[in-house]
Amino acid sequence: GDSKVYERILDYNKIIEALALPKGLPDTNPYRSSPSDVTTRFDQVFWFGDFNFRLSKDRADVETIMKRTLGGDMSPLLEHDQLSKQMKDASIFKGFQEPPVHFFPTYKFDIGCDNYDSTSKQRTPSYTDRVLFRSRQTNDIRVLKYNSCSSIKTSDHRPVIGVFQVKLRPGRDKSKAMFFPFTIFSCVLVSIPLCGGLFDRSLYLEGIKRRMTARELKRKEAISSQSSSTICTIS
């Protein structure tokens, strides 16, 4: 129901804390939602799914607004959108944005037709299904399409589709470089663009392979250290 905003924020926080993503990457993003938010360590992040936030308005009022909606302007509906409000207050999805919404609420329909919930619960039409994105660099993500699939009626939700153009930036290899100025030895850490700033798939795959190999070696070492023990005998 539309009264469970707090519970949905808790769900978001639980998911963030449970994400099995690499936590050793440097956190250089300006978004500081919480120390446990590993998503701040990535250049581009997409969140999509049924977030279950509702419109905080009576169904009759929502239906009246929908009848008055012209030209795809959904702002009168989105004024009552719980997710938009929580994002604006930075209590959830900090730094994320959503493409402009030009489609009607995607929940809840009677299966197989275009009627919103006709059961005794009479749920208020809402934007439960969303696609959000965040980019480290401005304009690295461009929205090409964001719409609902009104022709697919096999669920009580209408599917939402998002098409994006994403700019991929090359990774950087932290390497040690040796210098010998005035016969004084020095060693500095330099950041070198992989493949001279061009994306190379073979190099990318090789990097993944090496990381997996290193991770497997560490795992075997950990298992080996745990299995070794000293046996004491008492005579």
TrEMBL record:
Domain Inositol polyphosphate-related phosphatase: 1-172
Gene3D superfamilies: Endonuclease/exonuclease/phosphatase (3.60.10.10)
PANTHER family xrefs: 72 KDA INOSITOL POLYPHOSPHATE 5-PHOSPHATASE (PTHR46625), PHOSPHATIDYLINOSITOL POLYPHOSPHATE 5-PHOSPHATASE TYPE IV (PTHR46625:SF1)
Residues in coiled coil: none
Family matches, as SUPFAM superfamilies: DNase I-like
Keyword check for Transmembrane helix: yes
Protein name, as recorded: Inositol polyphosphate 5-phosphatase
Keyword Endoplasmic reticulum: no
Transmembrane segments: 177-199
One matching Pfam family: Exo_endo_phos2
Lineage: superkingdom: Eukaryota
Keywords assigned by UniProt, alphabetized: Membrane, Transmembrane, Transmembrane helix
